[in-house]
Amino acid sequence: MPLAIYYPGVTKKGSVCQTPVQALDFFPTFMEIATGKKYKNKELDGESIMPLLKGKKMKEREKFGSRLGFILVSAGCAVGLGNVWKFPYICGEYGGAAFILIYLVFLVILGLPILLCEFAVGRASQKSMAQAYEKLEQKGSRFHHMKWLSIVGFYMLMMFYTMVAGWILYYAYRSLTGQLHGLDSSAIQNAFDTMQSSPQTMMFWNVLAILVSFFVCALGLQNGIEKITKVMMSVLILIMIILAVHSLLSPGAMKGVAFYLIPDFSSVAENGIGNTIFAAMSHAFFTLSVGMGNMEIFGSYLGKERGLLGEGTRIMCVDTFVALMAGFIIIPACFSFGVEPGAGPSLLFLTLPNVFSNMPGGSIWAGMFFVFMAFAALSTVIAVFESIISYYMDTLGWSRKKTVLVNIPLMTVLSTPAVLGYNIWKWFQPMGAGSSIMDLEDFLVSYNILPLGGLVFVLFCTRKNGWGWHAFCDEVNQGEGKKFPLWLRGYMTYVLPLIIVVIYLKGYYDTFVGMGIKTLVLWMAFALLLLAGIFSVAFHKPKVQKK
Known about the structure:
Blueprint: H1 26-35, H2 50-53, H3 67-78, H4 81-94, H5 97-125, H6 132-136, H7 147-176, H8 185-197, H9 199-218, H10 221-248, H11 253-261, H12 265-271, H13 273-287, H14 294-299, H15 308-336, H16 346-357, H17 362-396, H18 400-420, H19 437-462, H20 469-476, H21 489-512, H22 517-538
Helix pairs in contact: 3-10, 3-15, 3-17, 4-13, 4-15, 5-13, 5-15, 5-19, 7-9, 7-17, 7-18, 7-19, 8-16, 9-10, 9-17, 9-18, 10-15, 10-17, 11-15, 12-13, 16-17, 17-18, 19-21, 19-22, 21-22
């Protein structure tokens, strides 16, 4: 319906504005006129239209340009180094295909529901983690205090992840230039040790990873993050397919394929069914990068045309495809060259370069592998940087460019301790003998912020004093596509939080059990204290004000 507004001294005669407004916008507009300040109230759905009256444009939240962009950017966030190097070696350690079957079950019942929680909170609030809880929570709720888990987590993760991304870039450069080809195992070990012992080398590639990622974010959502990540993910998948085919054609590769695809439950029994289940459950939780709020920001850029269950399932499938393809690259190659596929994290920087160095055309294959790894690492860095940028834009009103310029030097400084932890500060071993500063930072993120953040998301979406079950389901099911089953309320409210708590406490136990009973008890007490804080927020009953 057309609307005519006359405001002496503000509106111009004969001016026309095509921006639709609603009656809910009138009250905040009148309050801004009366007070001279923008009226802020999280309980109001309307927004002041004063910019329109002055002939300006309303500030609109950025949106994805396409559905494919949303899926690939979100998948790019989920697809990290854990998918590529950790999944194959865990498969190798716990018996191959039998582990994969258990993992896929937990991915559906554990990873997907938390992913939907993040997407729903983001899309409903249209805000970053800085303001999402405030906008959706019930009056008197304390859930908004939990936003600091996400904000601290973003920075903490990048304090070491940019360094590891720098390692990947460095290895891509050395592989493409043939510097690693023909080296024996001791020379490859020495190359890795030399890199870590040089703070100059480490810092250069760390800063390069920071600059590249922030540059992409500075270009904006559609022109930068969406456009470039779509290319990166497409090239990543193409390179993975080429590498997988090459690996499968290697002599003796079929033994690796059999190990990878044919379930052998005897190996599960050897490792212990409990240990295997927990390893599958833990990896299913961490593989989608849920818990911190990385996915929440992309939900806030998403329209309401489609239901979230279908979108979340597609992202989960892309993430799983990348992990499985990484296995097809690594495990057959390990069998072909007589290398243990359960070798651990050293698989990436020591074992595989040794394999590639003995291949015909090894420089090309190694270069392609580390380029693909670089895309996997940088897609995650870009996603987390976007979450950081959106925080400043939502809370401080900064421009995207200003936020990037401030965070480049800040991120460089914050990532320096992890770099120095392998050389100048090598003496500092916070997690026991042989550990580094990165190990401490990784522990704080992986064993604290991610599971606790995931727990908060689930409790927020199911508790009455948070957002509430019905509001969550309404948001998830809004739009076309498959609907989220309402009968899962009991599972989401009670069983899923219990599973997350078990993962959280088991992670602490496994980390400190070898350090003596006193150390174990102290750290377990600390873990329980953090849990108590989370549940005190979740079960806090807002006071009813007397009239």
